[in-house]
Amino acid sequence: MNARASTLRITINDGPEAVTLKLEGRISGPWANELGEQCRTLSGQSKNVVVDLRGVTHVDGAGREILADIHKKTGARFLADTPMTQYFAEQACQGGKQGKAKRGG
Questions:
Q1: I need a surface site. Which of 11, 50, 103, 104 has the fewest CB within 10 A?
Q2: What strand order describes the sheet that includes 101-103?
Q3: Model-level pTM?
Q4: Element (H, E) at 52
Q5: Phi and psi angles of residue 82, each rounded to the nearest 5 degrees, phi first
Q6: Which fold has domain 18-40+47-103?
């Protein structure tokens, strides 16, 4: 496995109506913690939050907790295009009141 495959790229697009987090790579270990740190500022946003999981290749237990926390605090909507990313989006939305997992984009 090369170093690039074991990292997480977080791209934040602050649009007029929504803040989109495009995630690429692995949401695991220290990268899950980094995602959590990046998202702490989003909970006070009045804009919608969209989390794009379409570039994600792996999510561990810490990553699942972070995704669920993002949903709980922001009502984020998740974009997913594979059975794996759809599964993690649905897991994050379980018990939430607002976020919906959406296939494709």
A1: 104
A2: 8-14, 18-27, 48-59, 77-80, 101-103
A3: 0.82
A4: strand 48-59
A5: -125, 160
A6: Transcription Regulator spoIIAA (3.30.750)
Q: Where are the domains of the chain?
A: 18-40+47-103
Tokens of 6: 């074991």
Token match 């934040």: residue?
Answer: 12
> DSSP 3-state assignment of 16?
coil
88-102 confidence digits (pLDDT tens): 999 999 843 334 455
CB-CB contact of 76 with 70 (8 Å): yes
From its phi and psi, is residue 13 left (phi > 0), alpha (psi between -120 and 50) or beta? beta
Total residues found in the chain within this entry: 105
Q: For the segment 12-28, what is each residue's pLDDT rounded down to a tens digit?
A: 999 999 999 999 999 99
User: For a pLDDT cut of 90, what percent of the chain falls above it?
Assistant: 62
Beta pairing, strands 48-59 & 77-80: parallel
